[in-house]
Every structure is written in C-alpha cells, then in structure tokens.
Amino acid sequence: MVMLPQVEHELHKRRRSRNIGLLVVLLAFVALVFGLSVVKITQGDMMQGYDHRPRASMLPPDPDPPAPNAAPVAAPGTPAATQGVTQEANQ
C-alpha cells in the first residue's frame, strides 16, 4: 500500500494561522496579568479591598487629638457602672 501525501487545503492554512495568532494574544494577556500580580505582591503595599467604609489606616492623623479622660465613665448596664453607683451610695 502506497501512502499518498495529503494536500492541505487553503482553508486549513488560514484557520491554523488565526489559531496561532489567538494563542499569541491569549499568552500575552496571561503574561500581562501575571506580571501585574507579581509587581503588586512584591511592592508590599497594604492590600486592603475597598468595602465602602472609612478605615482608620486611610485617615490622616488627627492634629488635635482629644485629651484622655482622667475619670473614665463606665457604660450603663456594665458591672463597672453598677460598682460606681454602689460606691457612691456607700460614701
């Protein structure tokens, strides 16, 4: 049995060249996304997502912070608040 060489049709040649072009474009896109990911990770920035809420890490420092309270007041309903009432009653 003799094997005859198969002649490739012009349509197959064009389709192959388009597929190779698409492969190159897709590989370039994957390389771009990978490169951007590597750069973002190696920069070491704080990678926090935007969740539509203000974050303390993003706010500028307060130039005039409030003075610490010398006599802190306990929240109503806590054990410390009831101790304060009983101590005042004992005095």
List the SSEs and their pairings.
Layout: H1 10-43, H2 79-90
Biased composition (Low complexity): 70-81
Region (Disordered): 49-91
Keywords: Membrane, Transmembrane, Transmembrane helix
How would you portray this structure in words?
By secondary structure, the protein is mainly alpha-helical. The chain has a domain at 10-42. The protein contains two helices and no strands. It has helices at residues 10-43, 79-90. It starts with 9 loop residues before the first helix and ends with a helix. The mean pLDDT is 80.
Question: In a nutshell, what does this entry contain?
Answer:
It is built from two helices and no strands. The chain is mainly alpha-helical and 91 residues long.
List keywords for this structure.
91 residues; mainly alpha
- Give the H and E element order: HH
Q: Can you tell me the overall shape?
A: rod-shaped
What portion of residues belong to β-strands? Answer: under 5%
How much helix, percentage-wise, in residues? 40-55%
Count the E strands.
0
